[in-house]
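Supplementary Data S3. Sequence and structure tokens for construct A.
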Amino acid sequence: MKELDSKIEELKKLMAESGIEAGVELSVLEERIRSQSKKESVWKRVELARHPDRPYAMDYITRIFDNFIELHGDRAYGDDPAIIGGLAFLDSTPVTILANQKGRSLKENVLRNHGMAHPEGYRKALRLAKDAEKFRRPIITFIDTAGAYPGLGAEERGIGEAIARNLREFSQLSTPIICIIIGEGGSGGALGLCVGDKVYMLENAIYSVISPEGCASILLRDASKAKDAAAMLRITSSDLLEFKVINGVIPEPPGGAHTDPDSMAKAIKEIILKDLADISDRTPEVLIRYRNQKIRKIGHWNEAAGL
């Protein structure tokens, strides 16, 4: 882009010196170049969010927390390995951790269903969240899923109801909740773990109501236009911060989080510690009131101000 900008400036200077009138054509060309550049930039973020070497939830859990003990089952149907949860220590503070977990190998991906959870996964998360509320343990969630699993069994067991219940119950939990989107934040599958007092995204994470491919297929009638759809959806961390959907963006190492997982984990830990120090002293009533105010502000549009 810098080279193209330089060439355009040279062309403008040459036109001014020679008296050639082509300002409109040049402006159109400039806009096309910038539009294409934006599409490529957004798609690069999508690729980094899906990078096969990108750290998953357990990679961060083992680096940030001590003595993690995983707990299983929703006490109704079974266990869902696509969502992990359990108890751990953040330095000396006991916390409850909930997270989407993808697999590295084919065998693990089959086990974890590529991080796409069934209803029992969300019900397990709610069970552990209620336990955390009882003992006033802060809840830390890590979100990384393309979406909830839309299969027949998941629908039969009430995937929509399970996610909706989590949205309602998490909004009323009387214990601090910090959510970190570390990779893909896909639709309701992400929302089921992403209601909190503070919501952050890693720099190259994405968060959207639908995948770029799905949007391209439905709205643009052409799945090959996923890059165009990604730019239209405004799914990057900078977009979501601008819309005030999230509280902040956590910078990644050059090249993405997978280039230096240790420093990435350190940055996440610093954010968690800072926020827990800020919100842990709030009374349950104040905590819930501010959380709900934050949720209700999402999506507000001021037509006069364009905000």
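Construct B, processed identically:
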Amino acid sequence: MKIIDTFIRMYRHSYYRIWLFILGLFTMLPIMFYYWRRKNDNDNIKLIENEVINELEKENLKNILFQEAMIHVINKQKCFNQNVPKEKQQIEAQDIANNKFADIVADLTKQRAQSEGIENFSITYCFKKMYENPLLRILSIIVSFPMYILILVFKSPILKYIIERLFMMIFVLFGVTFLVFTILYISPMEPALNILGQTATVDQVEQFNKVHGLDKSYIVQLFEAFKNLITFNLGNSYQGNEDIATSIMNKFPITIIVAFWAVFVSVAIAIPSGIISAIKQYSSFDYIFMFIALIGLSIPNFWLGLILILNFSIELQWLPATFQVNNSLSLIMPALVLGTGMSASVARMTRSSMLEVKYSDYILTARAKGLAERKVVLKHILGNAMIPIITMVGMQFGAMLGGSSVTEKVFNINGLGSWIVDKQFVPDIPVVLAGVVYISIVVSIVNLVIDILYAFIDPRIKSKMKNY
């Protein structure tokens, strides 16, 4: 059964074995007890196995298998016109012979054990016998329901991968929180003086530190930060006493809208440009594109934003100079500024990735079969070059979701990037910590989505994911 097979595969990994015992304690304890009572049966299997090995070694089977494997390796290398040193031939032949010998030993041991009525006794064997009993199976599922949930998760490679990455994200969040809090703690800036002003009295500063817990030791404050992270209590900011969670929820929609349109502009410009440049390599378009891409990488966002405002807002009065929530036209210039910078990198990546694939054997085969050039370019060349392109777009989108503080300042966008940067100079420790945790979560989730997309785009990754 699939549950039994999955349990056996999980039990081979020490990491999952621990979780099987933790989540299935009331099932694993009786199994362990039963195993220890009958573990002598396993010792008998070992004795039979040793007898089989001694008999086969007396027959010089290892040497015979090695000679056969050596002939096989030499013939294989002659077939593929490979010139391999003799030592490597012997190592490969020895591995083949050892594997065959181990298989023969396992088969003979199993046959003799069955003829003598002895079974290979192990924890996994005990679980199998327990699960095959309907009454014990139902009882086990009732008392160890979390363990069976884990087994079902392990059965699905994609779901298992997602759960593992989310679990790793917890450690990333704690590590980032520790580093950022430590840096802020040793920072020479004083939040009390920055907020109350340089004319604040000693009593006012002490009262401020006491109210916000800044008078406590480093360990106590760090513990409080970890506790707030676990309980999702982001607290209130030092400056303005605003609820941090509410502020993030209010600013997040603005940030994600700007990021989405910036990525849309970037992809719309970069992918077609990169494709044409790669197909028409060393043409006039290719040289012009490379020059424009270099300019796009060199232009600072704040300068481009000011130029757009000067021309399209002040001179032509076509677009609003600042961002307005209910005015979609106010998104055009921020999206162009952010998207233009992104498009240069994405276009260069598209060009280089397609050039790596363009002269591959399977592309020549596709053309030789008479496939239309458009199909060859879009399906075979671009399709096989998409992995680095998706990585680049995904990472830049994650960075956008973290907030683009310079562009937000230029266009007066009340987004997360400018908000976190402003609070950093106080330093408003709860806001900065919450902002860092938010960015860590966003980047981790974007990376996870990118890795999952790989499996749908590249069949090779999909096949590896099935065996994950």
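The first helix runs from residue 2 to 11. The radius of gyration is 32 Å.
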